[in-house]
Structure formats: C-alpha cells, structure tokens
C-alpha cells in the first residue's frame, strides 16, 4: 500500500471511478478495487477472503433464521467462527518475522509454503464479530450481500486495522457521504501515515537492524537500550502509519473510522497500555474473547485476561518468542493486579516511567526470534556486555539523535498539545500550516519511495 504505484496510479484511478459512480454502484466499485489490490499481492489470495465473506453472510442469515432453536443457532455460529479462525491462523503473516502457525510447535521458521493473503488478520475478525453480534441479537442480519462483503473486505484497514464493527459502519456503508472537507482531511491523514512509515518507522527499523547485528557479548548497555528504543518506535509508527492511511482513505471514500492509538507510551501501567495500543483490536478481544469467557462484567477474571493476551498476541506474529512476549505482559498484568492498592498511591509520572522501562526490557522477546539471543540482549541492556560504552553508541547518538527526538516528540503527545494550543490562540495559523505540511508530506513520501524506501519492516501482508 505504501508504494508509488498505489499513490500515483491505483488510488487516483480508483477514487475517480468511485466518485463518479452513483451511490447504488459504489459497493460494487469498492469490492472491485479490493479484488484488484488482493490480486496485486497474490493471484490466489482472493479465495480465502471470498470464502470468509460468503460464509459470514450466510451463517449470519441462518443464525437469525434459527434464533428460536438454540442448537442450530449455535451450530451456525460455530461454523462461521471456525472458518474465519482457520483462515486467520493459517494465513496471517507478521511484519517482523517469517513465522507461521507451525512455528508455535516447532520453534522454526515458516513451514507452510502458502500464498500470501492480504488482510487475513482483519477480514476474519470482521466476519467473526458480524456473526457474533447477530447471535447476541445486537444487530439484524443484512440482506444485501454486497454491503456485508464491503464491511468484511474493507481494504483500507487490511494492513493492520482499525478493526471495525458492523453496527458502527452499516449506515455509512449504505450512504457514504463524500465532501470536500472529508476529502481534504483524508488526504492529510493518508500522507501523514506515509510520512510516519517512510520517515519514522523505516529509519528506526534500519537502526535497530544495525545494532542487532552486533554480538550481544560485546554490546554495551547504552547501545542495547538505543537499539530496543529504535525497535519500539519502528513497531509503533509502523502500526500507527497504516492506521492513519486507513483513516485517510476511509475519509476520502466518505467514511469515518475510529482512532486506533491513544498515546500508548504515556500509559501509567500495562493494563492501560494494552487499552491504548491498537485500541480497536483491544476492544475486539475484550468483547468477543474475554467477556464470553468471563461472564461477570463487574469483576476482573485474571485467568481469562491471561488467555486473552496470549490469544491476542498471535495477531502480532507467531513463534515461541511471541508467546514469551505475551507471557511477559501477563506477568506484568498479574503484578499490577496484586499491587493495585499500592500502585494507586504512586504518582502517575513515576508509574509511566517504570512501565516504559519494563516494557523495553521485555520487548527483545518480541523483536528477536531466538530465545537465547533475546535473553542475551536483555542481559546486555542490564550491563552484561563487555563494555560500559562504545563507539557504536556514540555514533548512533550523533547520527540518530534528531530521529529519536522526533519520534519521542509525537509519541508522547507534545505535537498534539502544541497544535491544540496554537488553535486556541490563532486558528488561522493552523489553516495555513496544514496545507503546507500536507504538500511537504507528499514530497517527502515521494522522495523516499523514489529513493528505494519501504524496504524494512512491512505489514502489507497480514
């Protein structure tokens, strides 16, 4: 999606056809665009998506039809969930590792040599939530197959969300409203996403790869911390970039999509962190996995929470290292729960700082495939390397300090605060600066793409 072909060829052509089409034909145009993009990734990748759309549509109708027969109603729900989960587990791909479902048991790289399926981590969740909402009688089944397919196969969200709810999207899908304001806002958000991906995420990932290439035995503590901070920024801005691109394209098409990130690095604990990092995915896991297990909504079910974190971690990648990362998060959540009364008396700023330090200490288990290497990296962070300081750390600071500061500037919400203050003082300045920034983002993105950008972490196939 982040490519010159998409930006300068597919998107203008698709938007032109979509805009001139009447409301009656826009669903078909939208689905045609989805098919073209999926075929771009893989000729056969369209089949699992089509299967999920068809199964979810007919199972939804049948769940409603047999609403008075509990056994049949549950049977059709189980079938829809089983098909969507099978597609999710088999075809989902991680952007920072080459692992698949077999890796959980073997500990090795991908063994299933299957064709890539773009959006498997999103359209399957849409299909499950659609049928479960009908089962719970929260929505009525939609008779229009194209509308249901458009919701399930909502391609702007395919890279990494946000995860949408049919109840929030149904009216927008029926009558999308394209306005000049939505178009301008959409272009701005999309180009912000391009800039985050190419200017922030990719350089940070390249820096992480450079530091990761050093043996952990000779890696200084300073350099190890700089490396894992670089990975954390790369991972965050990668996901945030694609979410902004999804919001932007959605706005251009006449839809309003929810925000997916709420300054997660400013969280005062791990429980708050998982709520503010990929917010829509968190709410999906909570409503469709955690709550069915823990039926008491007024209490915290710790074991159900642990299962939810372990299951949710699969969405970010396979492999034992991902399971270890999820286990680390579960341990932190358990400690927070046991010490909640004591932590409540600790200042928010202190809890936020401690959370970020602990988060970074555990992050190597997600970033590094090999468990011994991940443990070695954590040991280096804690001072187990050969040197207290080295030339590489000095070089990274001198050459990358600006990038680190820019990433921190936006990740901590300082940029958002300054924009709000400027708007309070003089809104005209914002109206003048924003178009200039949009043009600047377009020029920066084009320059990076022409120069061979988008070569590092890539979540295009999920």
TrEMBL record:
GO terms for cellular component: plasma membrane. Belongs to the membrane-bound acyltransferase family. It holds the Pfam family MBOAT. This is MBOAT family protein. It is a multi-pass membrane protein. The keyword Nucleotidyltransferase does not apply. Signal peptide: none annotated. InterPro entries: Ac/AlaTfrase_AlgI/DltB (IPR024194), MB_O-acyltransferase (IPR051085), MBOAT_fam (IPR004299). The keyword tRNA processing does not apply. Keywords: Acyltransferase, Cell membrane, Membrane, Transferase, Transmembrane, Transmembrane helix. One of its GO terms (molecular function) is acyltransferase activity. It is found in: Cell membrane.
């Amino acid at each position: 999606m982040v490519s010159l072909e998409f930006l300068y060829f597919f998107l203008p052509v698709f938007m032109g056809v979509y805009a001139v089409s009447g409301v009656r034909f826009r669903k078909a145009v939208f689905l045609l665009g989805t098919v073209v993009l999926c075929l771009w990734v893989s000729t056969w990748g369209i089949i699992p998506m089509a299967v999920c759309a068809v199964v979810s549509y007919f199972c939804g109708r049948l769940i409603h039809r047999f609403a008075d027969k509990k056994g049949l109603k549950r049977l059709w729900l189980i079938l829809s969930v089983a098909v969507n989960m099978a597609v999710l587990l088999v075809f989902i791909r991680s952007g920072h590792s080459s692992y698949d479902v077999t890796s959980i048991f073997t500990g090795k790289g991908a063994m299933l040599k299957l064709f890539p399926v773009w959006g498997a981590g999103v359209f399957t969740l849409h299909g499950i939530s659609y049928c479960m909402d009908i089962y719970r009688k929260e929505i009525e089944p939609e008779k229009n197959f194209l509308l249901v397919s458009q919701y399930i196969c909502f391609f702007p969200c395919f890279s990494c969300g946000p995860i949408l709810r049919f109840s929030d999207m149904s009216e927008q899908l029926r009558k999308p409203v394209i306005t000049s304001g939505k178009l301008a806002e959409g272009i701005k958000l999309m180009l912000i996403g391009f800039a985050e991906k190419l200017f922030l995420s990719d350089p940070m990932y390249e820096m992480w790869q450079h530091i990761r290439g050093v043996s952990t035995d000779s890696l200084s503590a300073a350099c190890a911390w700089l490396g894992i901070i670089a990975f954390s920024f790369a991972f965050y801005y990668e996901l945030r970039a694609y979410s902004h691109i999804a919001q932007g394209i959605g706005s251009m098409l006449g839809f309003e999509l929810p925000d997916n990130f709420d300054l997660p690095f400013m969280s005062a604990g791990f429980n708050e962190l998982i709520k503010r990092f990929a917010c829509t995915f968190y709410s999906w896991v909570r409503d469709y996995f955690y709550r069915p297990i823990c039926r008491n909504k007024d209490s915290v079910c710790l074991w159900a929470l642990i299962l939810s974190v372990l299951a949710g971690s699969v969405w970010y990648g396979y492999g034992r290292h991902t399971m270890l990362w999820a286990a680390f998060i579960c341990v932190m959540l358990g400690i927070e729960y046991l010490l909640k009364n004591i932590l409540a008396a600790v200042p928010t700023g202190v809890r936020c700082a401690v959370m970020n330090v602990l988060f970074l200490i555990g992050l190597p288990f997600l970033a590094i495939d090999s468990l011994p290497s991940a443990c070695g990296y954590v040991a280096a962070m804690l001072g187990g390397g050969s040197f207290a300081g080295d030339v590489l750390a000095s070089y990274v600071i001198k050459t990358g300090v600006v990038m680190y500061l820019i990433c921190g500037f936006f990740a901590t919400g300082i940029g958002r605060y300054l924009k709000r203050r400027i708007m309070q003082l003089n809104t005209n300045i914002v109206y003048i600066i924003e178009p200039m920034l949009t043009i600047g983002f377009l020029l920066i993105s084009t320059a990076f793409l022409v120069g061979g950008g988008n070569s590092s972490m890539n979540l295009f196939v999920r």
